[in-house]
């Protein structure tokens, strides 16, 4: 019998990941989905008609009870507290299932960007439950990468289950983008560091481009020069914050979709906390926190992609 899959969290990232998983699992497999947003669940079912069976379930507990033996449960949630809620800190959580597996243990894969301390805590809860094994496999690549199946995964797990984890998350990402970072917690630790660098670059790119526009430099020409020089980064090259510079960028779509500014602020929060936990000095951490939290409350940015911080800086839009 083909393994069954459970997926919790159909936000912009989770939706794309789940679509890729559904497209690649055997037709005789089953996919169980759960989210607090009912419309997202119904939309997913509409987009997957005619392939492996998809069933909407109401609670995480039901996901566990339907995925009992040699099965896989994947979570993709916004924040640490949501992960705790789904796994163990609420009624009808994943680990509250009363039926124990009779065959090989199931596999829980947590793909959210969360506090590494929380990931290790959840991993211990899974181990104590005897329901299965646990890995964190944080992702990088954004909603576009989730849809296109080109995500990178930073994996934290025991060596014994690494091949199994890779076989699952590989359905959502690049074969050369599966990185084993160490034991549970190591994957999301690397992701927090990556996001700290990425979000910092996003702000600096927005500041530099805004400065250039106000000094009379054409932003397209400035971007071309930066991308051929040492200032090039992911933001300038792949998702420019200035509307109109790249027609396929989120900025050219009114900053709608993409990586929410609230999530960017949360990434900085995690990095600052992580650095404080281990005594690592961050010179930009606290100022970055203040900047992103102020920007995310600005009506011009709230609820939009993080590159809308260009607006907060006073950036000109055509």
TrEMBL record:
InterPro entries: 6-PGluconate_DH-like_C_sf, 6PGD_dom2, 6PGDH_NADP-bd, HIBADH-like_NADP-bd, HIBADH-related, NAD(P)-bd_dom_sf
Keywords: Branched-chain amino acid catabolism, NAD, Oxidoreductase
EC number: 1.1.1.31
3-hydroxyisobutyrate dehydrogenase-like NAD-binding domain segment(s): 185-312
Entry keyword Signal: no
One example GO MF annotation: NAD binding
Highest taxon of the lineage: Eukaryota
Record's keyword annotation contains Ligase: no
GO annotation, cellular component aspect: mitochondrion
Reactions catalysed according to its record: 3-hydroxy-2-methylpropanoate + NAD(+) = 2-methyl-3-oxopropanoate + NADH + H(+)
6-phosphogluconate dehydrogenase NADP-binding domain residues: 5-174
Coiled coil, from the record: none
Associated pathway: Amino-acid degradation; L-valine degradation
Residues at the catalytic site: 191
Record GO biological process: L-valine catabolic process
Family the UniProt entry places it in: Belongs to the HIBADH-related family. 3-hydroxyisobutyrate dehydrogenase subfamily.
PANTHER family: 3-HYDROXYISOBUTYRATE DEHYDROGENASE, MITOCHONDRIAL, 3-HYDROXYISOBUTYRATE DEHYDROGENASE-RELATED
Listed name of the protein: 3-hydroxyisobutyrate dehydrogenase
Record organism: Saxophila tyrrhenica
């Amino acid at each position: 019998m083909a393994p069954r899959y459970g997926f919790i969290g159909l936000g912009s990232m989770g939706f794309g990941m789940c679509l890729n998983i559904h497209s690649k699992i055997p037709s005789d497999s089953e996919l169980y989905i759960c989210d607090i947003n009912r419309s997202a669940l119904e939309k997913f079912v509409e987009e997957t008609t005619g392939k492996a069976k998809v069933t909407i379930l109401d609670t995480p507990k039901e996901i566990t009870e339907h995925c009992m033996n040699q099965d896989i449960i994947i979570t993709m949630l916004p924040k640490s507290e949501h992960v705790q809620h789904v796994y163990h800190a609420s009624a009808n959580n994943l680990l509250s299932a009363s039926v124990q597996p009779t065959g090989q243990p199931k596999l829980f894969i947590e793909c959210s960007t969360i506090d590494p301390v929380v990931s290790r805590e959840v991993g211990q809860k899974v181990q104590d439950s005897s329901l299965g094994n646990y890995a964190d496999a944080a992702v990088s690549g954004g909603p576009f990468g989730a849809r296109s199946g080109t995500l990178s995964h930073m994996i934290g797990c025991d060596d014994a289950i690494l091949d199994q984890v890779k076989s699952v998350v590989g359905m959502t990402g690049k074969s050369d983008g599966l990185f084993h970072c160490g034991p549970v917690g190591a994957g999301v630790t690397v992701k927090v560091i990556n996001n700290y660098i990425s979000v910092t670059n996003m702000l600096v790119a927005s500041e530099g481009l805004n400065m250039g526009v106000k000094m009379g430099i054409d932003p397209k020409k400035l971007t071309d020069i930066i991308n051929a020089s040492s200032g090039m980064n992911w933001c300038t090259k792949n998702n420019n914050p200035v509307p109109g510079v790249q027609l396929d960028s989120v900025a050219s779509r009114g900053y709608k979709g993409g990586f929410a500014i609230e999530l960017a602020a949360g990434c900085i929060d995690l990095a600052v906390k992580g650095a404080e936990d281990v005594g690592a000095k961050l010179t930009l951490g606290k100022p970055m926190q203040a900047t992103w939290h102020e920007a995310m409350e600005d009506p011009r940015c709230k609820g939009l992609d993080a590159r809308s911080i260009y607006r907060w800086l006073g950036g000109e839009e055509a």
